[in-house]
Amino acid sequence: MSDIPGIDVLRALGDDHRLRAALVLRRHELCVCQIVELLQLAPSTVSKHLAILKDAGLVESRKRGRWVYYRAARKAALPTRVVNTIMTAFDETEQSRMDSRTLDQLLSMDPEKLCEKQRCP
Amino acid sequence: MSDIPGIDVLRALGDDHRLRAALVLRRHELCVCQIVELLQLAPSTVSKHLAILKDAGLVESRKRGRWVYYRAARKAALPTRVVNTIMTAFDETEQSRMDSRTLDQLLSMDPEKLCEKQRCP
DNA sequence: TCCTTATTTCGCCATATAACGAAATATGAA
DNA sequence: TTCATATTTCGTTATATGGCGAAATAAGGA
Q1: N or C: which end of chain A has fewer CB within 10 A?
Q2: ipTM over 0.90
Q3: DSSP strand pairing (A30-31 vs A67-72)
Q4: Which pLDDT belongs to residue A30?
C-alpha cells in the first residue's frame, strides 16, 4: 500500500508510541525491556513497533546474548521549516513528478468541463 | 488518540493520496474537482482527505461561489536531514521531556531487575 | 422562487492497525 | 543436556481508517 518511497517513515513516526521510542533511541541504545518499561506496553507489542521502525530504516538492532539492543540508525530526525523540508524531499519522487505533469494538463482544462466529465462518464 | 502535538501532521501526510494532494497544493491553488481528477477518487473521499490536511494545519481553503479552493497553508514539505529535523522538533514536546526523565530513572536501574519486575507484577 | 450543481456530511462496508496472550525461538547458565 | 528467560512470531480481537454512494448543504442562475 506504500506506493511513494519514504512515506513509510511518516507512517512509522505517526504513532505516539513509536515516535516516543524513536526519540529515546536517538539518545541511548536500549534493550527491548527498557522500552517496554518506558511505553508500558506488552513486550510483543513493543517488539512489533520496533520492527516497524526498523523496516522504515529509522532504527537498527544488535544482539548481545539474550538481549537485543536498539538504537537510532546511523543515517536517518516539526514547525514550518520541518514540513517544508519533508515536502521538498517528497517533491522529488516519481509520483510527484507524474502528478505535476498530470496537473499541467488539468490546469489547461476548464474546471467547468472537468466537473461535467465527472458527472457523466 | 493523538497525544503528542504535531503528530497529526505526520499522520496526515502518511497517506499516499493526501501526500500527493498536499504536494500539488504547494504549487497551485486548486478546487476540489481538480483534485478529484488528479487522485481519481470519489468527491466525498477527496473532501474528507482535504479536511484531514486542513485539520493538521497543512492546507487552507476559501469559498468562491460554488467552488471551494484549497492551497497550502501559509505556515507550514525525506532523506537523513529531514528525519533529523522532524525528530529534533518533536524532541521539544512535553511528552519527550517526560520520556527523558523517565528514561533517566530507567537507566539507573539494572535491566535485569526491570525484566524481573515485568515478569512478576 | 425553483433548478442545477460543487462540496460536505452521513451511513455503510472492507481492510488495516494496535494491542494482548500464548506459543515458538534463541541463548546463557546450571 | 536441561532449565530459565529475553525476544519474536502467531492468532485473535477491537478499533481506526479509507473508500463509496446517497442525502444534506450552499450558492449561482433561470
Answers
A1: C
A2: no
A3: antiparallel
A4: 84
